[in-house]
Amino acid sequence: MREYIGRALGFLNPVRLIGDRQATIDTIEPGSIMVAPRKPIDRFDVAAITEVLDLAAKIGAVLLDSGTAAIDTQRQIEFVAAIYGLEDVEVDVTYNTIIVSARRGATLPPITTMEQVYYRSLDFTRLAQIDRLVRGIRNMAITPGNAHRRVDAIINAPHPYPHWVANGSWGMMAAGIAVLLGGGGLAAVLAFVTTVVIVVVNRRLNRLGTPVFFQQLTGGFIAVVPAAVTFGLIDRLPVELSPSLVIAAGIVVLLSGLSLVGSVQDAITGAPITGVARFFELVLMTGGLIAGVGIAIKLLEEGGIYLPTFTANTAFAAVDVPIQMLSGAVASAAFALASYAERRALPVAFMAGAIGAAIVAAFTLFTVGDVVAYGVAAAVVGLVGGLLARRALTPPLVVAVAGITPLLPGLAVYRGLYGLLNEQTVVGITWMTNAFAIGVSLAAGVTLGEFIARSLRRPQLSVRPRWMTVLRPDRVNVRPHLPRRRQPPT
User: What positions does the domain Threonine/Serine exporter ThrE occupy (predicted)?
Assistant: First the structure.
């Protein structure tokens, strides 16, 4: 732990923040793909071309499945193909399909391969390993055969942490969000227990093949019942509990696994079809969550348990800012751990969460709207996260998603749903619209911050990678020169 804290504090050095160890996607600029260091593949060698295309498509599938934007996925596929000597390549990335085609001139038909992208649980370790593999393909002359074996090993590898660690991390994330929203110790404990139950039940439903929509519905139902029942039992006791904060924490946990950032990034960066498909999935899953919460509220009212109404927005004083910073940081780090991020990424996620929560808390002290506050916070998280990810050799997507997850509008979603269910149509629609605007603002802000982070220092791409600098000057297609073994004494 002392080592990780020291590394996190070392990241604060402004000189080190813009170090030259960029993430892999930061070294890929449109129009500046380096000249292929290997000998171009013979256009008649169908087997070699197919092997490279299949490798690039597999790498792209892992990236797209992890939430990477379609444009970034396309660039990395083209980058891998170019490294192996295929430069005339067309890549088509859609919601769940990747098609890669290599042209072979005007007289030969192109060679095409396709990869299907299936839904998997979040695993940021897999994303980081693919990032390092792409880096190794460029710098260490990994052959296509070895790269294939490494990709298969990455895809088939089990999660780096046991399930109980992930379950506890989801609960810790919910507890941090409950405190971030203004709850006390009881709200944090109740959010922890409720979220662990949600994760365990949904994990069981997923093993049974239950559609994700019904998993979200079940999670929304469970998020309401413990908070409402506990509130009804302690209503007459001198204990304060705001069930809305517990419910909002559960909603944020259920929303965190959805590709909000990826959908908006696709729409902004020039992939509208994929962005619309991802956004429709996001709306559908959110609809299942809202349905579960609504069913739970109605059933509880039939049983005589009524949740308290909302009177005003939650207000925070200046003295609460440190608590919000700490709770946001804990929630971000817990989300990263629950998503199986590497240990080196946890301090970076902790700092990103603290920065985002601090900015939002600071803006609430002034007359600034929520949309602007959350957008600015997300932009700073994307910027700082992109810079810190260079030092930790972590994909910027991991830091960005972890940093803005505690800021997801779970409370606004619950307030809007509560208003719609209690004949407050105008209030409900207003809060739902506010939640939608905050979500888009978060995703757009992260996209802007990552773009600025890449622009702070343009990568200086060498004509040849490091492994080719040791080649003999009079020969090109040879293996890296190894030092001669010392001759035994005679």
Answer: 325-452
